[in-house]
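Example (one chain per record):
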Amino acid sequence: MTTQTQELAAPTLSKQEFAQIRDLIFRIAGISMSPAKMHLVSGRLGKRLRHYGISSFGEYFRFITAAGNDAELQTAVDLLTTNETHFFREPKHFSFLRDQILPARRKGRMFRVWSAASSTGEEAYSIAMLLADCLKDEPWEVIASDISTRVLEQASSGVYAMTSARELPREYLSRFCLKGVGTNEGRFLIGKELRSRVSFHQVNLNEAFPSLGEFDVIFLRNVMIYFEQHTKQRIVHRMLPLLTGHGYLFIGHSETLNGVTDAYRAVQPAIYQKP
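Predicted structure:
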């Protein structure tokens, strides 16, 4: 095996090899992949086979599961986790946070929000902009997490293409962001003061959570669609004690807790509250 990139014909991913990789990702991240994802797996991992000069997906599977290859295993996990997001996605959630939750908070107490599947950080920074706008000098913080080290590194940098700002309020763009010039033309940077209020952590939702403290709101949006039923149940039940009294859990609009748990009280579509 060589670590130099080699020009190889793209290997074919067999059903058996796909099953090995699918089962591995499920064990690590709780993500369930249907056979329709074979093309995605082949495309995203194929570049790693070419990088190492590996001629089959079976050989690559043995490589990443061998002792001492944790870094490449993490790379594979990074490549196979879907990271689609944008600023102020599903805006009704932000309206509910602004109009219902924040006015009812106990003033003077630290207000904490967890963006539990933060991907490249747009959700976490959207929350931070709203809190900075509404809470002024009141204490608050945003904890953001993802299983992928690759997207966390990008999120921590706070640099985004201007094209991703299409749903970002113009006022927030001017108040909290810096427009790139020169070699950074076409990009913008989240301001240092706002970035300092958001901390990013690698968290695998399929494993025991690290010590994160309690939260007034948890955003768990657009990630449960990749989990099987028992994985969903385990995750949302482990989140319940992390919510403060009557804290809120937000999930994606295409998701539901119906049939998953009755431990939360439904408030609005995709918004639940600790009873």
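Caption: The first helix runs from residue 15 to 29.
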